[in-house]
Design goal:
Layout: E1 3-5, E2 12-13, E3 19-20, E4 24-30, E5 47-53, H1 70-80, E6 88-93, H2 109-115, H3 118-124, E7 126-128, E8 141-142, H4 163-170, E9 179-180, E10 188-191, H5 192-196, H6 200-212, H7 217-225, H8 228-233, H9 242-250, E11 252-254
Helix pairs in contact: 1-6
Length: 259
């Protein structure tokens, strides 16, 4: 196996050909007991940390309820900051070492952020920070599956039979995709203009759906893991070639896809 590490610069060129350093918020949807002091040691000084506490109504930034896992924190930030967004938003859980980060990045959120190519975020508008296709791509959530379907798996896809109803409630009028697929797990970067391309009321409606729905947080939160790319790209499948995405997103490049 050969890895080629390329230098990654955080100076970017915007679409008006002006060179600048983008402003960035790190939005952590986290529990009050989680330690996010690791964010103080990030190599980029442009990251401003915004911790959204899902279990502390007295925190400076908090969600209306502890429901929907990290989705509630992400959506609450989008609603609250809609008119005061930086150039780039990076949405994360609160921990550093998590399995949601790829092994090539040593399962470290800090290492992934230190290598993240912000130029690529600006170019793509929305970027899932996870690369792996494991239990995610290229053909994962089938919106025709019901609880009675023989293909239904409570272990791997407990949210699958609820996807159709959730999609139709959250995106009324949008065509229902047969398949929804993208790397998991609600770790993503997105630009200011992309967030504002969605009406602010939609974020409020999504928060209400989480808060007032009949599903457990484990189900409703996992449903949103399969919907961010539809929300921002209107794309049902967002499964980029793994080795190419690792190179473009993080400048960790293999000589070939088979390495």
């Amino acid at each position: 196996m050969v890895w080629i590490f390329l230098h990654c610069s955080y100076a970017v060129t915007d679409f008006n050909q002006q060179t600048s350093s983008p402003s960035v918020h790190l939005v952590l949807s986290t529990l009050s007991f989680n330690d996010y002091s690791w964010t103080k040691n990030l190599s980029s000084q442009n990251y401003k940390v915004i911790p959204y506490m899902v279990d502390d109504q007295n925190a400076q930034y908090h969600t209306p309820a502890n429901q929907g896992n990290e989705a509630m924190g992400h959506l609450t930030y989008m609603y609250d900051f809609y008119d005061n967004l930086p150039d780039i938003l990076i949405f994360l859980h609160g921990q550093d070492y998590v399995w949601h980060i790829d092994g090539a990045l040593e399962y470290s959120t800090a290492k992934s952020l230190n290598r993240l190519d912000l130029t690529e975020v600006l170019r793509r508008k929305y970027m899932n920070l996870r690369i792996s296709w494991d239990i995610a791509c290229p053909n994962w959530m089938n919106t025709s599956i019901t609880i009675d379907s023989p293909e239904f798996s409570t272990k791997l896809k407990g949210e699958e039979p609820y996807m159709k109803d959730a999609f139709e409630a959250l995106f009324p009028g949008d065509p229902l995709p047969e398949i929804l697929a993208a790397p998991c797990c609600s770790h993503f970067a997105v630009t200011r203009d992309t967030i504002r391309s969605v009406p602010r009321e939609r974020y409020q409606n999504a928060m209400s759906w989480l808060q007032n729905g009949y599903m457990s947080s484990s189900i409703s939160g996992r449903i949103w893991e399969h919907l961010w790319h539809w929300l921002f790209l209107k794309r049902a499948v967002d499964c980029l070639d793994e080795h190419a995405a690792l190179c473009r997103n993080y400048r960790i490049c293999f000589e070939s896809a088979g390495d």
